[in-house]
Specification:
- The protein is an all-beta fold.
- Helix content is 0%, strand content 51%.
- The chain contains no helices and 11 strands.
- Strands 2, 4, 5, 6, 9, 10 and 11 form a 7-stranded mixed sheet that branches. Strands 1-3-8-7 form a 4-stranded antiparallel sheet, with no helix packed on it.
- The chain is globular.
- The relative contact order is 0.32.
Length: 124
């Protein structure tokens, strides 16, 4: 199976930037799509962004469009989420997920593997 590990979270002031990384390891024998989700305390997990294996297809939630950029480096088995112009409402635990399904963007139920999450806190 595929193991996913997120990193890059932390504390940042509003207007600042962070870059999250999602490193994949294990049996990555086939191409896979990757998504980012986030969950704030007391709220449902929500979609943030997704990217196809080739990087040719990218999707963003309306709340982050224009501020966040998803990318990947398959030679490093790593997907990135560049987060700019951060707002306090971006505070959440951020999770990456992967799926071998072809649908883009993959619906929540379609993801096969999930990381443990990384905390992002944006102060006022």
């Amino acid at each position: 199976q595929v193991q996913l590990v997120e990193s890059g979270g932390g504390l940042v002031q509003a207007g600042g930037s962070l870059r999250l990384s999602c490193a994949a390891s294990g049996r990555t024998s086939s191409s896979y799509a990757t998504g980012w989700f986030r969950q704030a305390p007391g709220k449902e997990r929500e979609f943030v962004a997704a990217i196809s294996w080739s990087g040719g297809s990218r999707n963003y939630a309306d709340s982050v469009k224009g501020r966040f950029t998803i990318s990947r480096d398959n030679a490093k088995n790593t997907v990135y989420l560049q987060m700019n112009s951060l707002k306090p409402e971006d505070t959440a635990v951020y999770y990456c997920a992967a799926t071998y399904r072809a649908t883009m963007p993959p619906p929540y139920w379609q993801y096969d593997y999930w990381g443990q999450g990384t905390q992002v806190t944006v102060s006022s």
